[in-house]
Amino acid sequence: MSASSLAPSPDRRHDLDWIRIGAFLLLILYHVGMFYVPWDWHVKSSHEVPALEPIMQLTNPWRLTLLFLVSGAATRFLADSLAHGGRVGAGRLAGSRILRLLPPLLFAMFVIVPPQSYYELVEALGRLAPQADAYHNAFTADFWVRYATASGNWCDADDCLVTPTWNHMWFVAYLLLYSLLLAGLLALTFGRLRGLGDLLERGLKGWGLLIWPIVFLAIIRWGLVLRFEITHDLVNDWYNHALSFSAFLFGFLTARSGALREGFIRLRWPALILGLVAWAAWAGYAWEYRAEDAMPAEALRRLMRGVYAADQWAFIVAILGFGARHLNRGGPMLHYLTIGVFPFYIVHQTVIVVVGHHLAQLRLPLAAEAGLLIALTVAACFLAYELARRMRWAGLLLGVRPQAANRPPLAA
């Protein structure tokens, strides 16, 4: 028998709960940072802070991959709870994921996200597009109709703003797709897909848990990233799918493995050191060649794709290891935030875009502007969650099931 079959199989993991919460909150801060770094984004502050770039690079390679991995683990606990009497429960899993993810995705695309597109149009296209001038002073019903019906034609010399769009909600769209694919695989294999977790456990013993995933990530980056740049458009995003669905499936297959959990704990310090070294190399490379016309040698580019993969997985191993070692307590705060981070995620980027645009008009000092932006974003996130808790079935539009806040979460 494998170690995973002998290890306890808890119905929830506090450490994964805390890691999921931390990853989502970190994402909120990351998007605040996008308002200030020189990179393209929906709206921009008048205060450009290039020194933030290396700090942003600290989480770039792994933050979303970690979220997909933890989401896969949560899906494993959910799928196991829905299995009944020897049945796989694939249909129930698919129905549960559709009910939980599709309403907030559609609500966000047609209610939450349109202000992002509006202010992007105002700032990025401005006088180049006649439609932008027409909407410069107000978010009008006419703009929403054009947004929702894809009848707007907002283009500049380089690109077009295509609507309706999901912007940051691409993560939810992909998570829904991956959940449905997983449900199909469980049905086709009559649940035997779970057995691949035992193979992973045996293949990732010792240092293999750190080394072999890095090799895998480097291979897909070498083979796919140049041909399929990350687009979040679902259809032509093959590198992103190879990366994100693999992480999701890995989380699903290994969520109950006590042996791999202990492996993450043992490797947490070496992984952290490797991650920091790889981050320093990657951030230095990105800084040196940050100009649009910079062209590093092909050999260096190939080498840095491997460094990127090492950065990516090493930090994930370190986070999972330190989490498993130190984040094993529950409590009211964990319960509250476990449910709350989804509505936080749904509303946060729109708040940052809208509030950031108007704060930039005030020409405040950088510290005051950034402090207000963070404080107002956090306040709006908590307000949205508190409203969703009181909206009964309508709370599903913000990702909160009826009475979910009054009972403990099922899984990670």
Question: Helices and strands in order, then pairings?
Answer:
Elements: H1 3-6, H2 14-34, H3 52-57, H4 63-82, H5 90-112, H6 114-125, H7 130-134, H8 141-148, E1 154-155, E2 160-161, H9 170-188, H10 196-203, H11 208-224, H12 238-254, H13 258-266, H14 268-288, H15 298-326, H16 332-362, H17 366-389
Antiparallel strand pairs: 1-2
Counting helices, strands and paired strands, the structural category is mainly alpha
Low-pLDDT residue spans: 1-9, 127-134, 407-412
% residues in beta strands: under 5%
SSE ordering: HHHHHHHHEEHHHHHHHHH
Arrangement of strands in the largest sheet: 1-2
State the share of residues found in helices, binned by percent.
Answer: 55-70%
The helix count comes to: 17
The Cα radius of gyration reads 22 Å
Shape: globular
Tally the beta strands: 2
End-to-end separation in angstroms reads 26 Å
Summarize the biggest pleated sheet: 2 strands, antiparallel
Q: What's the rounded overall pLDDT mean?
A: 90
